Amino acid sequence: METRAAVAFQAGKPLSVESVTVDGPREGEVLVEIKATGVCHTDAFTLSGEDPEGMFPAILGHEGAGVVVDVGPGVKSLKPGDHVIPLYTPECRECEYCLNPKTNLCQSIRSTQGQGLMPDGSSRFSINGEPVLHYMGCSTFSNHTVLPEIALAKIRSDAPFDKVCYIGCGVTTGIGAVINTAKVEIGSNVVVFGLGGIGLNVIQGARLAGANMIVGVDINPDKKALAERYGMTHFVNPLEVEGDLVPYLVDLTGGGADYSFECIGRTDTMRQALECAHKGWGESIIIGVAGAGQEISTRPFQLVTGRSWRGTAFGGARGRTDVPKIVDWYMDGKIEIDSMITHTMPLDEINTAFDLMHEGKSIRSVVTF
Ligand code: APR
Ligand code: ZN
Question: Which domains, from first to last, does the chain contain?
């Protein structure tokens, strides 16, 4: 079939909206009509050319929601008409990783996904017979896309696509880091570095978990009022702190954070996040993605004295199991999404979403089809 998609032909160039041929679903695959997609920093990172795994031409996008149109042979858990959220971290429930409760990093289709291909090693997308690559196993910047059954979370049918698409990446990454990775306990003191689309979701996750102090750290003073809305109790602007930030945060939290989260992607703030964690038990979770080749550092004594440094991807969530629950939390009013979606636009204006992100003007832009 023919569909419309925003295609990335070359690193550093704007996306171009094209007519693209999509082949039907093969064994174990599902054809999905994407109704809405968020535009995330990871898409911008790949488009910039700095992503060492990035390849072109490709159809980017990994934060979508849509409806099943057709299923290939052997697909059992989904049927046409089902509402779904694509998963860049699938959940096969059979591999060594899925069977280990300590991780969510299903590896069953990892190698082909990293090459921009379906599990059988081919692409379903082409333009004039020339193949176009998939991206993060999702390619939600296409009105129609094909995914393996194990990479789709079935969600309730009354959830609005243009809001719950954000659960496909940002919301789950932030809230999941608190609930699945850190397992924040009631009464914990939490410090969040970076109050963007990820950090705000860490904040609402900490509120949901019953945290005591929720300290937000950001160099942009405009983030204060916004973050308070999702549960931040204290705001710290590092540019206004006299002296070092770390002792200031340790003092503010009465000895250090029980849990800290880095949601910026800078190695210097990763170090600050670790070092503001409480001696003896504080845990620091890295969510932000640093540039290729960068390294983190601290004095080993920080770890010897009981702090731990961890990281998380997709909020430690097992997508097929956890994503439908997060959709329920949104529909039940337990978490907020609407106010984080600052811009909505049609596919033809998708490049504006990247501009708004680079200018720091949006929290999240959503493209609707
Ligand atoms: N100290 C404190 N805050 C900072 C600093 C700094 N040195 N530098 C930037 N910030 C703040 C910005 O003002 C902004 O509010 O960090 C926030 C980052 O937010 P966004 O740009 O919206 O990024 P977000 O989408 O939340 O993603 C954060 O997670 O998924 C990864 O690749 C993504 O690494 C990125 C990170
Ligand atoms: Zn993302």
Answer: 2-168+337-368 (3.90.180.10), 174-313 (3.40.50.720)
